[in-house]
Design a protein that fits this description.
The protein is an alpha/beta fold. The chain has eight helices and twelve strands. InterPro entries: CBR-like, Cbr1-like_FAD-bd_dom, FAD-bd_FR_type, Flavoprot_Pyr_Nucl_cyt_Rdtase, FNR_nucleotide-bd, OxRdtase_FAD/NAD-bd, Riboflavin_synthase-like_b-brl.
Amino acid sequence: MATFFKRLAKSAPIAFGFQSNSKSRITFGALAAISGGISSYYYFSSLNLVYADQLNEDAAPKVALNPDKWIEFKLQDKVQASHNSQLFRFSFDPNVKLGLHVASCLITRAPKEQDAEGKTKYIIRPYTPISDPDAKGYFDLLIKVYPDGKMSQHFASLKPGDVLEVKGPIEKLRYSPNMKKHIGMIAGGTGITPMLQIIDAILKNPDDYTQVSLLYANVSPDDILLKNKLDVLAATHPNLKIYYTVDNPTKDWRGGSGYISKDMVVKGLPSPSDDTIILVCGPPGLMKHISGDKAKDRSQGELSGILKELGYAEDMVYKF
């Protein structure tokens, strides 16, 4: 499994398994009270209703996540994705799905220390899985490991067989097929993760005709996460366009250079319209430059930055 996972990371860092669930249909015959009187009819009808409720409960889809309870997921494997980022695959019951909507994130926690009363304090951070929400038995996280990042250092210390506590999902933007004719995306660094979740949902659905344009900013070409996978998707799906820009280009770099500019947005993303939406996710500096950050209560907040200057309205922009 480790060799297979590493091979995937080099060619197209995450391979998604698409599995469809067959749905059973149960038909109940009408119960006629031919004899025994009205009381017998109601008695047997009640039994049928109880039985139907039990079948419906058994047929309800079971998911691995719980929004109100911390669940332990075992690390199956991890692999280096870039010079400072790693891919982590966590496993669970292979017969169930994770229980994630597009686009949603998870909440993770790790023990930090104990307080004066001996109670454990935790580091808590949200992350967006990049695996297919319909996949059964596993989910994948892409984590950038910072030297002073308490949670990312915890991830880096994990070994196959170790467990991670997870709660969720936390829904961000509820995506539905063809909700907009054209979706523009601006991402920086690991801000690519919710974008990829939506991109995959669109591209795997033959009835979704949404056009997607992505501007992806990084420090250097080596910092571009999941570039192999993104390039394959763009090459095989005409409704996906990607433009990369980096702060420190190399001599052989053929993409853009510098911060995302007004010109890049005008040329690479859909114009302001009721049929378009621009999604933004990245570090605070990028958010402030492009759209303004979210409010202190984590609501969308006021729109500012390049997008406001170019005439986009608040309902045309979504900040992750």
